[in-house]
Specification:
Elements lengths: L5 E4 L7 H16 L3 E4 L5 H8 L4 E3 L16 H9 L5
Parallel strand pairs: 1-2, 2-3
Helix pairs in contact: 1-2
Amino acid sequence: MFKQGVVAVAGPRSLPESEAAEVAAVARSLSAAGHGLVVGCATGADAAALASASSACSVLAAFGPGGRGGCRWSNVAGVSRFAEEGGAV
């Protein structure tokens, strides 16, 4: 399915904007190289990777539809948008 295999991209739930940009660049680079990505459902590094990932990405969500069961660190809007666009959650 993927030329290079699957890579998990994860990190802190809170990080400076400059570091979020670095995570996003890594996600884009991995996707461009043919890797599939697996990211979590949190804010911070997970959100940065998800926003920059290609369609070859899967999200492991710890909350249900509409953010049911989520918390303040949950990226409900980003994960919901990704799912609505046909992404694997």
